[in-house]
Amino acid sequence: MNAAPSGRERRLRALRRGRRGEWICRWHLRLRGWRIIAVDWRCPSGEIDILARRGAVLAAIEVKARDDLARAGEAVLWRQRRRVSRAAMTFLLQRPDLAHLGLRFDAMLIVPGRLPLHLPDAWRLDT
């Protein structure tokens, strides 16, 4: 009889699922003309899963991999949106060469058996 996975095993499984989801999202973006600027960019005020550019737009993208779209969408919490927003401001301070671009906050949702769902402009700075 198989024992239920431990908390550590569940966290590792979730981490692997998230990394795989981010990899899929990066390829999805590349195939649609986006250039990946940074992946898993971190600073003291937050982190950004993917920073990508297409034309005059710089997108800070939060990736969520879940079993269904509703759960994935619900997982983009206001705390995470705030951390991504703060991290994006810090990123632009460190990369003034990109400051002229229009900054946008996107979400990408990953569920098994489907292409990633890209939600452009998923939230604004004031949220």
| Secondary structure category | alpha+beta
User: How many strands, which pairing sense, and closed or not: the largest β-sheet?
Assistant: 5 strands, mixed
**Annotated CATH topology:** Trna Endonuclease, Chain: A, domain 1
Radius of gyration: 15 Å
The shape, in one word, is globular
N- to C-terminal distance: 48 Å
CATH 2nd-level architecture: 3-Layer(aba) Sandwich
Helix content: 25-40%
- CATH class type: Alpha Beta
Order of helices and strands: HEEEHHEE
Strand order of the largest sheet: 1-2-3-4-5
Question: Care to describe what's here?
Answer:
With about 130 residues, the chain is α+β, with helices and mostly antiparallel strands. The chain has a single domain (about 5-125), classed as Trna Endonuclease, Chain: A, domain 1 (3-Layer(aba) Sandwich). The protein is about 40% helix and about 35% strand. It contains three helices and five strands; from the N terminus they run αβββααββ. It has helices at about 5-30, 70-75, 80-95; strands at about 35-45, 45-55, 55-65, 100-110, 115-125. The protein has a five-stranded mixed β-sheet with strand order 1-2-3-4-5. The longest helix is centred in the first third of the chain and has 25 residues, at about 5-30. The termini are far apart. The mean pLDDT is about 90.
